[in-house]
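Hey team,

Filing this mostly as a record. A colleague (T.K.) asked me to run one chain through the structure pipeline before their review meeting, and I want the input and output archived in the tracker in case anyone asks later how it was produced. No errors, nothing strange. Just documentation.

Input sequence:
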Amino acid sequence: MTLSKKDFVSIADFGRAELESVIDLAIEQKAAQKAGRLNRSHVGRVLGCIFHKPSLRTRISFEVAMHNLGGTSLYLTDKEMGMGSREAPEDVARVLSRYLDAIMIRTFDHGLVEQLAKHASVPVINGLTDLLHPCQVMADLQTIKEHRGSLDDITVVFIGDGNNMSRSWVNASARFGFRFVLACPEGYAIDDAFVSEAYGGDTGLFEQIHDPGASVKEASVVYTDVWTSMGQEAEAEKRKRDFARFQVNDALMAAAPSDAVILHCLPAHRGEEITHEAMESSQSLIFDQAENRLHAQRAILSMLVRPEGK
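Output structure:
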């Protein structure tokens, strides 16, 4: 199975059928790995992993995924590359394409990922930018499908910021046709232009409100993220004040349907955006979700990177 695009930069680049095929392959490969029968289809292939931001899950899950498929991976930082300062991104893209079979990049500037994808002849995967985090949402969708059996007729409620995670959820909502609600303080909403473009002007699937309790009344999924992301450290104290009411805790979950599940992309600041009790509750799928980063990304690699002998 292959994808119609060379690169995996945004969920918005694909239709539902293709995205669901990635999720289904991830579920299939997960079972195969646990049974010891995963196909080592990519022996000899090399993935280059570029990191401008630190990582736990992204680095380990991508490297393990490539090793699972029989390939190898390289960890690359800006110290070696100087992309945009020492060397132009288009030159880096062309050189790496001569050495590697695929490139994953976790960085700040989304435009840098787009430049790499434009000039590289090998697949480029967006491991995170300040604009989007598509691989995380693919793992999240896998987690929801495993738990519920379907991605139809769900309502995902994001308690927090109009950040890269919530924008990626907007893209997923537009592609899969489920309802997405962002509950955020005033001044932290997603840009109207982004929402309009994602939904093609029809925003009936989307709601942005400022009352966390009201937001979860029909939630299938209650999702949260840290209040202060990397690069926003100077705003940390202000954000703590602004988001004080926007915590996933027992009181908030009491306002949600009893079968609602809790997701968090991690790392979590227990006691801030989510309580210890909520993370450890029976409604939490957070660590299933974290595991699925490996399986979803392995499926993406399987569908983008040329297998052995081809």
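Quick notes for T.K.: The two ends are 13 Å apart (CA to CA). The mean pLDDT is 96.
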